[in-house]
Structures are given as structure tokens and as C-alpha cells.
Amino acid sequence: MMENEFYRIELQCVGNYIVPRNVGSITKYPTELGPNQACTLPGATPGESLVTGDAYMLASFEYRQKDIWRNFGILVLFWAAFIALQVFAMEKFQHGANARAVTIYAKEKKENKELNDRLQQRKAAGRKDQDNGVVGGTTTTSGKAFTWENLDYTVPVPGGTRQLLNKVFGYVKPGTLTALMGSSGAGKTTLLDVLAGRKTIGVIHGDVLIGGEPTGVAFQRGTAYCEQLDVHESTATVREALRFSAYLRQPYEVTKEEKDAYVEEVIALLEMEDIADAMIGQPGVGLGVEARKRVTIGVELAAKPQLLLFLDEPTSGLDGQSAYNIVRFLKKLAAAGQAILCTIHQPNALLFEQFDNLLLLQRGGECVYFGPIGKDSQHLVRYLAERGAECPSDANPAEYVLEAIGAGSRERIGPTDWAELWRQSTNFEQVRREIQHIRAEATQHPPESDPKANQEYATPFFHQLKIVSERTLTAFWRQPDYGFTRLFTHGVIALITSLTFLNLGNSTQDLQYRVFAIFQASVMPAIIISQVEPMFIMARMIFIRESSSRMYSQIVFALGQLLAEMPYSILCAVTYFVLFYYPAGFNTASDRAGYHFFMILATELFSVTLGQMLAALTPTFSLFCGVTIPKASMPAFWRAWLYHLDPFTRLISGLVSTELHGLPIICQASEFSIFQPPSGETCQQWAGDFVNATVGYLDNPAATADCRYCPYSVGDEFYAGLDISFSTRWRDLGIMLAFTAFNTIVTLIASKLFKFAKR
């Protein structure tokens, strides 16, 4: 590309490219290129003021115009080779082909082996008590009834608002399992989110009470919510996922040993002994659908919810047997005194009978029925029959009731609105009286004063940070592709650069090569950012779910991500520095090498924090660092502010000045600008004034012909024209660290203020 561009043009030798020339008060030299002057442009011919592009490229880089099409052909061959290699690899290597059938287990530690042996012994002894619905001390008992009445919910839409819930009444008592059913779009999940206090948009009207008291700040800590999508840290084992929940959601005063023991009880309850040390994996890869559902429930149970357990379609995507197993577990929990409310989509008759109560919604978020189901669904069937919807004996009541209200494939039975029938029924009045009775009982037994009632999180900040950082570090360690890719990229770029500029000398050309080699460091941030962003975004998806349960704060999440990146950043900086700095022949003095390493490390940290801060935007600042375009040549608008704002200005300035400061320059024979002095004068007599007023040196000052002028005598003279100074190198490092601190602060603030998901 350079040869294609340069061979068409001619470069004119004027101004600073003429030596010797008039500088300051010196006026003895011709203003145009004269017979006793030389052009410093590579490829210049003595006495000629024009330099062809071909000559310039040949002298500077040994590029030839005749090689253009050869080089293009080589690029095509590279492209074809890479395509062929990709096709071969895709055909030869079947990565993850058997992943659905493979469960990956973490390396078994001594502690885990003992725990697994105990679980297997319990499993072998049988679960007669649990099969009879007795859970014992595994779960806590909900001591308060949960009620809601006259509940409305509206959301803003273009042009106005839309009501999603309309005058909904109901309650959940301790020890009961309540099903929430309705057609698609009836508002089942919406109602569940409203009751759980997880809605972030819209307006809610009505009373939602726990034990007769409004739900406070700590309500979400006292409840558990199993979402429909089983979002978990894919690299965590089942036991680790449950422990993570227990460590952060159970009271801080509970000892670690007690929390660990409780987690083992939950594993046994949910019959996950065989997969306790299995990694969860991604949906579709790793644990199966049913096992993931059990993990989701287990994570919530590990928190020891004191108030209520919400589940959003826990049987979704499961076959009949798996769905029955999940509901059987829920029945066990309810029998132990847990209050449970869950949405469910068209269960079979056997599954439907496991529930104690039913809350049925029709489109528009209106309640159609709330009350007991009964054996063989007798209470629900009788309610329907009294209103003209006789359920056939061979029909599934759960499916029939949806058909009756118009939520199935057939038209609604009867001309009357079922929501209106419900509001006119005695059953509705019984529900309202029961809610009032629950509230009256609650007033007779006022709750004890809880000093932590307004505490948003169960554990203190530094405990959260410790647990979250440990999990994030473990996740990074178990994803070797991420760490290896970063390390490999740093190593390859450093090695290619250092081998390209191997053992640089002190010539003018080597001086330029040193700057080019240093400039390669500015390539790394874009690569680092592109690797950091996906990790941050995937971790944020998990945080969104966990933050709804008040497990840990946004600040902890952001700091945990940053701290987990630190070991990899240091390792990558060391790798890049060692493979680049010494093979390239840079200054080995401890102060120079040490500064170079710290600047590379600061750049690494800056890149990581920038990637985490922006998450989706990777700006290219390299054009404004002062090497590709010197500051003086930039447009005034960019020069005024972007040059100084660009962090790469500090990176390049610090590294270039540290490496080139005091470096003596010895021009090679081909690098001298040769000119002839006037007859009777030596080179020093003719050009001495110019050399003393500018930079560089005369190689043969006493000669009377073929004066050899080198444009630089020391490295400082080279970077002076780039507005770089050795005296500001520590300031530049400090500014890089300040940029890193700024990125971190913005990331923390953004994590705190901005909501990544709306519900």
C-alpha cells in the first residue's frame, strides 16, 4: 500500500530537509538547495531538489514498486491458507460434540470427598422420612402469612399507560403450596415479580403485606425467587453455587460451618448427591434441564428464606417425570412449613393435585379464581360446575379450567366474564374475609423489633467482596481459554516485535525502529478491551439475577471483576516486557527497564478498566499519541485538547523518552547527508555554525570534501520534535495511573446508578 501510494509522487526538498541551512540569526547559506548543500530525505540525489517516491521507499524501507502485485499475491495466498486451515480444523476437530452427554466434575478435594461419602451413606440408607413429605430441620418454617389485596399494576407505553394487573386478591399461608396459572400474557410472571418486589418500572397500587406489615427493605433477603431461566456461574460446582448463596444471604452471625452443613442438607433434600461436585455449565451443555432446575431451587433454599419461596414456571422444559420430581420437592418443603407460590403452565392432573391452592388469571391481569383445589380438584371442579362449566370426568381439570375461561384453544364457556363471576361469588368474599382475619391476627401478635430490618444486605461489604472475588477468580481459572488467549496474544505480539527489531543499534535508522517497536505497545489496549468486555458482560448477567436477591452490592460486583483481572494483568505485563524488552536490545539499566515495565503494567490496568467502563465501545486513540502524527502537524482543533487527553500520548511519551534519553547516535555510512564545502573551506568552517545552532554532528569536520552530516547526536534530539521530554516521564506514568483510577471510579458509579435490566 505504501509503494502504491508513494511511487506516484515526488518529494520536494525544502526547509528543514536542507543542510546546512539558515537558522536563527545565521544568514550565510542559500535559501534554496545550492551546490554546497545536501537534501536529508532518503533517496535524494546530490544537487537535485526533488526525490522520487520510488527512491524514497527504496532508501527508507527497501520497498520496490515492481513488487506490488507479488505482495498482493502473497496476501491472497495467506487468505487461502487460513481458509483452508479453518475448514480442515472444523472438519477434523469436533469441539463439544458430546457435551450434552458429558458432566464435568471439579477435582475432588479431601473435604469434599468426606462430604460426598456422607451424602452417599445417607442416600444408601434411604429417605423414608423425606418420601413421606418430612424434611425435618433442613428448611426454615415460614412464620408469617403473605397477603395482597386490591392489587393494580400499570406500565407506561407509547401514548399512555397499560394496566397489567387489575384488582387481584390472594394470600399464601405457611405450609401451603399455591399455584399461579393463566393463559400466556395473563400476567402470571408479572404478578410474581410485583409480589416479590422486583419490578423496577410502572406504578403499583394495593396492599402487599407480610405478617400484616408492609414489605420492608429486607423483604427480598427473606424471600427466595427461582427464575424461569436457570442463570448460574457456569464454572461453579453445585456445592459451590449453594455455598455462595448461603455465605451471602444467611445472617453474617451464622458460622461458616453451620452454613456448610445446611448446604449439605439441601443437597440431600434435592437428591443432588451424585452431582454435588459437577460443574453447572451453560444451558444445554453440562447439567441437564432437570438438574439445573434443582440447582436453581437449591441456590434459593441455601439462603434459608424466612418468609416465602417464589418460583417462576419451575417445570418449564421438563418431561413429565422430571416435572413431577420438582413438584414433589416443593411439596416436601411445604410440608415442612415453607410458604410457596409458583407459576405453572398446564400441569397434568397428577401434578395439579399436589398444589393446595390455585390463583387463576385471565387476560388483562384479572383474577378468575382463588381458593383450594382439593382432592381430585373437587373444589375447583365444583366452582366451575356451579357456573355452567361442567368438567368431564376424563378431562384434566388444569387444562379444562383454562379452556373454560378462554385461555385455551377453544372459545370461552358461557357469555359472562369469568372475572366478573368471581367478584360476585361468595368465594371472593371468603377470600377477603380471610385476608382481614390474617391481618387481624397479625395485629394481636406484633412483630419483634429487628435492628437489621432496614439492612439491605445480610453481610458486610468486605465479606461480600471476599466471597465474590474468590468466585470470580475461580471462574477465571476454570476458563483457561480466557487467560491463555490473553497471555498468548501478549507473548506473540511481544516476540514478533522484538524479533523484527532484534538487537537494535545506535544508528539513525535504529533510532526510528526503537520508536516503532515501542509504538506496538499501543496496539495491546484494543486487544485487551475486546477480551475483557465479554467476560464483564457475561458476569453482569449473573449479577442481575443475584442482585435481585440482595446478595451483594453493585460496587462489590465491579470491584470483584477488577480484582480478578489483576493477576492476569500482571502476568501479561511481565510476559510482554520480558519477551519484548531484552531481545530488542533496549537499555538494561535498572531505572530504565523498571520504568518501562511499570508503564506497560499501567497500560495493562488502564486497558482492563477502560474495557470494563465502556463495555460496548472501544475508541481508537492511537492516531493522536504524537508518533504517527506529530503534535505540530495535527489540526488545531485536535491539537488543542485531544493530544493531551489521549492516554497513549502518556504511554508513548514515557517509553520513548526513557529509552532514547542519553542514547548516543552513530550514523551508518548510508545515513549520512553528504555535501561539498566551498573551495578552500573545511566542513567545520562551512557548516559549523549550522551544527552548533541545531542538532546532529559532523563526522569529518576537518575534511575539505564530502562532508558527512548525521542529523542526530543523541536520542533526545530525535524526540524533541515530537513534544516529548524525559523530565516528564514520571508525570506521564502518574497520568496513566490517574486514567486507570478514573476508569475504575466511573465503572463503580455506573454499576451503582445504571440498571442493566428493567422488569
TrEMBL record:
Domain ABC transporter: 146-388
Membrane topology listed for this record: Multi-pass membrane protein
InterPro entries named among the record's database cross-references: AAA+_ATPase, ABC2_TM, ABC_transporter-like_ATP-bd, ABCG_dom, ABCG_PDR_2, P-loop_NTPase, PDR_CDR_ABC
GO cellular component terms attached to this protein's record: membrane
GO molecular function: ABC-type transporter activity; ATP binding; ATP hydrolysis activity
Chain spans, region Disordered: 113-136
Segments of skewed composition (Basic and acidic residues): 113-131
CDD domains: ABCG_PDR_domain2 (cd03232)
Keywords noted in UniProt: ATP-binding, Membrane, Nucleotide-binding, Transmembrane, Transmembrane helix, Transport
Keyword Flavoprotein: no
TM region positions: 68-90, 487-505, 517-543, 555-582, 594-614, 733-754
Location of this chain's protein in the cell: Membrane
UniProt cross-references to Pfam families, sorted A to Z: ABC2_membrane, ABC2_membrane_7, ABC_tran, PDR_CDR
Primary localisation category: membrane
Family: Belongs to the ABC transporter superfamily. ABCG family. PDR (TC 3.A.1.205) subfamily.
PANTHER family reported for this sequence: ATP-BINDING CASSETTE TRANSPORTER
Protein name, per record: BMR1 protein
Species this protein is from: Thanatephorus cucumeris (strain AG1-IA) (Rice sheath blight fungus)
